[in-house]
Write a structure and sequence with these properties.
The longest helix is centred in the N-terminal third of the chain and has 24 residues. This protein is of the alpha/beta class and 542 residues long. The radius of gyration is 26 Å and the shape is globular. The strands form five sheets. It has a seven-stranded mixed sheet with strand order 12-15-16-11-10-17-18, sandwiched between helices.
Length: 542
């Protein structure tokens, strides 16, 4: 039987644009993975690797007009958004080239023999080596930054690992064009093009994670799809690391004092964040705990006005559109749920943005309202109105893991001068904590505890990998300190997929004991011929 064709589809019309190719068979996957495995040595030279990454960035930037046009035709994300995303992708490739040049990611540690230690220490020399072929599963909502040339690919190549990318069906033509650019860049720097492979098709994705020559995998997508692949990776005769980003609600807590101080600003900011990219960001704020009362009312009024002024949008494909429409309808039917701006269907190709409100007590109680604690992909958020801080804690205690968690504080709360958590634990001037201190004890029993802002941060930190104060989670900076990952189901590991330390996912440490220097890799020679940062007999050297 002939392989199924792969079509590029215009989400604005639902019509096929062009046939890109065919879905990969098991034999195709075996061939592409085998070629990538054979190409591992081509990435051994760090200098060539860094030049390859920079060269890829340069070629992608030179082809940006064509790439952005194709990506927009397949995703409807808009040229402005896609131009910025491609620029971010090129920056990320160059950033990983800098990581490769620096060499700290190799984690070189050298300990000379010490017979006086208990037990005695032999000559030990440790560094990290690449795992092998990495399977990358492209994301629907980021055709550049989290797809073929994205963070998983860039970090894996930087680590010295060839990649085989399973293209996302929402942008197959973009994937082919970008993969071709990466292959050209490899060839120009003396690296075989097989270090970047590409396959299409659902079955190909399953074959890929099961292939015995695949050493690790990176995934960005749904909880259902990611968990199935994660389980397949774990069920292999030789299990492999599976770094998956699956789903996130990204909760936001707005204190009563913050709402009183700047409720309108918070409401309009929330509208911009939840509707950005038609609500298709993995860090979209999907649940907001806002106070009952005047401050919360002003926040909702501003949110209503801003979201109501948002035009219809096109989601990445019609399947996602149908899931969004059905999902918001199911949520709206729950008791005590209202829709000040009702989300749902626009015309046959579009959706409308909106938000739902519910008493926080409903979420704290569980039951059918647990549906509101699940991610709904698209331009919608849930605002839970709380009456007191006990309800905040009750709702937060029921949340799964997230990529981000955010708190909006008043100026005094952010500065720790709001009067809460003082030496007598007496609570704030507004009585918001009554006579209870940080530990929940009365004033006489509580020492000088943390203020309200610190207590909320302490509640949010276990829930997420990135905790924000007075900001919005949409937008993930490519920076050395970044953490894009969180407790399950946000991700399946503790690693980050953004920032320099993302390279660590594709490496494993090896130590050589009492090995003659003539047999050691140059990274572990005493003279440090490569000038690497390292820890040498306990001293950190740069």
């Amino acid at each position: 039987m002939a392989a199924a064709p792969v079509w590029s589809v215009d989400p604005r019309t639902g019509k096929q644009r062009e046939q890109v190719g065919a879905e990969a068979t098991a034999q195709d996957v075996d061939r592409v993975v085998g070629a990538a495995h054979s190409a591992r040595a081509a990435l051994a030279d760090r200098t060539a690797r860094a030049a390859f990454l920079r060269g890829a960035a340069g070629l992608l930037d030179a082809a940006k007009d064509d790439l952005v046009a194709v990506a927009d035709a397949e995703t409807a994300l808009g040229t402005a958004r896609l131009t910025g995303e491609l620029a971010r992708t090129c920056y990320q490739l160059r950033a990983f080239a800098d990581v490769v040049d620096e060499g700290a990611f190799l984690g070189v540690v050298i300990d000379h023999p010490d017979d006086t230690a208990t037990p005695p220490v032999p000559d030990l020399r440790r560094h990290k080596i690449p795992l092998g072929v990495v399977a990358v599963y492209a994301a629907s909502n980021f055709p550049f930054a989290f797809s073929v040339p994205g963070g998983d690919t860039a970090s894996a190549l930087a680590a010295g690992c060839p990649v085989v990318v399973k293209a996302h069906p929402d942008h197959p033509a973009t994937s082919e064009r970008v993969a071709a650019v990466l292959r050209v860049a490899a060839g120009r720097h003396g690296i075989t093009e097989d270090v970047v492979g590409l396959v299409h098709g659902f079955d190909a994705g399953v074959e890929l994670v099961r292939h015995p020559l695949v050493a690790a995998a990176g995934f960005t997508g749904s909880v259902r799809g990611g968990r199935a692949l994660f389980d397949a990776a774990a069920a292999r005769p030789v299990p492999i690391p599976f770094h998956g980003e699956l789903g996130s609600l990204n909760p936001v807590v707005v204190t009563e004092a913050a709402a009183a101080e700047r409720g309108e600003e918070i409401g309009s900011g929330l509208a911009g964040s939840m509707t950005l990219g038609v609500g298709q960001f993995c860090v979209k704020p999907g649940l907001v705990l806002a106070p009952a009362g005047a401050g919360g009312d002003r926040l909702l009024k501003a949110l209503t006005e801003a979201v109501g002024a948002t035009g219809d949008g096109v989601l990445l494909d019609h399947r996602m559109r149908d899931h969004f429409v059905a999902g918001v309808a199911e949520r709206t039917r729950l008791p005590d749920v209202s829709a000040p701006v009702e989300p749902g269907a626009g015309d046959e190709h579009t959706v409308t943005a909106g938000f739902l409100t519910v008493p926080a007590a409903r979420l704290a109680a569980g039951g059918a309202h647990d549906l509101l604690l699940e991610e709904c992909f698209g331009p919608v958020t849930v605002v839970a109105r709380y009456r007191d801080d006990a309800e905040i804690t009750a709702v937060l205690s029921r949340l799964p893991g997230n990529l981000t968690a955010t708190v909006h504080l008043s100026t005094a709360e952010a500065a720790g001068t709001d009067g809460t958590g003082g030496a007598d634990g007496s609570g704030g001037a507004d009585g918001s904590y009554g006579a209870r201190g940080a530990s929940g004890t009365s004033g006489a029993d509580s020492a000088a505890g943390p203020g309200r802002g610190a207590r909320l941060l302490a509640e949010l930190t276990p829930l997420a990998g990135r905790v924000l104060v007075d900001g919005w989670p949409t937008g993930v900076a490519v920076a050395p300190a970044q953490q894009h990952g969180g407790p399950y189901p946000a991700t399946t590991s503790t690693a980050t997929s953004v920032g320099g330390t993302a390279i660590e996912r594709w490496l494993r440490p090896v130590v050589y004991q009492n090995t003659p220097e003539a047999l050691l890799p140059p990274e572990l020679h005493d003279a440090n011929p490569l000038g690497l940062p390292r820890r040498y007999d306990g001293r950190l050297e740069h």
